[in-house]
Hints:
homodimer, 8 strands, DNA-binding
Amino acid sequence: MPDSSRSPITPAVEDFLKAVYETVRAGGGEPAGTTALADVLRIAPPSVTSMAKKLAEAGLIDHVPYRGVTLTEAGRLIAVETIRHHRLVETYLHQALGVPWDRVHDEAERWEHVLSEDVEARMDAALGFPTHDPHGAPIPTPALEHAAPATTVLADLPLGARARVAEVDDGDGDLLRYVGSLGLYPGTPFEVAEAAPYAGGPVRVRLEAGAEQTVGDRAACAIRVEAA
Amino acid sequence: MPDSSRSPITPAVEDFLKAVYETVRAGGGEPAGTTALADVLRIAPPSVTSMAKKLAEAGLIDHVPYRGVTLTEAGRLIAVETIRHHRLVETYLHQALGVPWDRVHDEAERWEHVLSEDVEARMDAALGFPTHDPHGAPIPTPALEHAAPATTVLADLPLGARARVAEVDDGDGDLLRYVGSLGLYPGTPFEVAEAAPYAGGPVRVRLEAGAEQTVGDRAACAIRVEAA
DNA sequence: ATCGTGATTTAGCTCAGGCTAAAAAACGAA
DNA sequence: TTCGTTTTTTAGCCTGAGCTAAATCACGAT
């Protein structure tokens, strides 16, 4: 049995576990590679390896050298807890303090590490126990259950499809500001009015109000949708 | 001219400058001693010396070896900014999220280091630009002016004096809970009903409602008062 | 004036969390 | 299969922020 006690949960550890969680999820369950994690965390690959060794030692991840990293149950709990903090804070900043949706991410990135359970619960209650953050991403429950996000991307919809914006990738403020200027917030229903023959190109969408807008390819890949 | 650029403003630096600010203030302008700072920061004296050297190098403090530490103007600005963050967060947690006054300090101690100017301003506005935190301590203005705190301590009041609670030292949750249970929140008027012949002893106070309460000596020294 | 005590600094160590350069393993193409 | 490329790890270094033990300074009492 690994030494799961010892080793304090620092911000760097929380960020690492969160990155593993998200990378594994994005990769359909495949172990997260060193380079992929290095990209997400914006650190050099050797730094990933050394952190991986330490956390494997502590029983928070499984690390098969040269093969990749997955979370143990203990690690998953910390990752999801951190994501819950992050998304609750984003929602709180947006809802209670009016911070625009393209700026909540960076702030939450720091707050997630300093939030007590008590204040987490108070924010949750003040917001009426929200299920999704301002970008449409599901907020894990207090019991740390975490709904799967929408998977279909706007760029992949066929001509004529009717759908609703489910989630927009956070992390790129400029992109969010652009998507916001198009009015494509989570929940917004629309119809695909024009699509390039091969996926990935720019898309024209018609909103409920009747307005038609062109959505650039970068944005069309960052917007995930669900059935209207 | 000292190299005031370089050296990032880490949480440890903010805490250090804050400690110098408060210690110098408490000492009536005398330079802060190494041991005093070590006590406030809960680190060992040699750690204080090495931080002092680094910050003197960076132009944030003046350090005369064996003599003590004072802030430069640049250091003062950072210290006061940090205190502003701290007290604004305390007030926000108390007012907006209902966190009891004996628990806001520890949370604010962490939040003060991660608060952006934007969110600071939004909290300030949401609270209606408060001038004092939940313990009665003055909140520095956005321009970083900082009112002097009340100086008279309840324990020093003579028999029969009428006064109002101005400020209660934060930092000791148990003490705050005790003072709260006596109803002695900032702003509360009272009269000294019974006082030990020499200062520092327990004191009996009569509240406006007529109730009389005994205030233990520890508390009587932690409560600062102003003219009623 | 000196001497002991207490405060302060120096010397040298540790750990976390980064980095670069070089070695080693995995993988795909020939 | 073999060989070059890419990915990952090892080796070794750095900085920040702490620590203890030992040396040094300041100061008050004799």
